């Protein structure tokens, strides 16, 4: 995976699931949340693992804000 932040962001904007997961992992690292992402038939599937229960509304909202900023080239996103 690209170590350059600009290259990583570009990959994420292109819909690269690993790049998106890396950026989300950076965002959620303080909470101990681990993010996995994969693309299945042009659908981004995001899974989160956390040592504590997360508030679903807050977490999904946070992910959506990040994805709106990136605007990845994907037709559907499943969280």
Distance between the termini: 22 Å
Mean pLDDT: 92
Instruction: Please provide the ordered H/E string of secondary-structure elements.
Output: HHEEHE
Task: Pick out the low-confidence regions.
Answer: none
Radius of gyration, CA atoms, in whole angstroms = 12 Å
Overall shape: globular
Please state roughly what percent of the residues sit in beta strands, choosing from under 5%, 5-15%, 15-25%, 25-35%, 35-45% or over 45%.
15-25%
Judged by helices, strands and strand pairing, the structural class is alpha+beta
Question: Helical element count?
Answer: 3
- Within the largest sheet, what's the order of strands? 1-2-3
Please summarize the sheet with the most strands.
3 strands, mixed
Number of strands: 3
Helix content: 40-55%
């Amino acid at each position: 995976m690209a170590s350059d932040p600009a290259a990583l962001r570009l990959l994420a904007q292109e819909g690269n699931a690993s790049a998106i997961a890396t950026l989300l992992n950076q965002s959620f690292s303080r909470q101990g949340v681990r993010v996995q992402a994969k693309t299945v038939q042009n659908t981004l599937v995001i899974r989160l693992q956390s040592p504590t229960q997360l508030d679903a509304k807050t977490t999904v909202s946070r992910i959506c804000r990040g994805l709106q900023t990136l605007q990845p080239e994907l037709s559907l996103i499943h969280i």
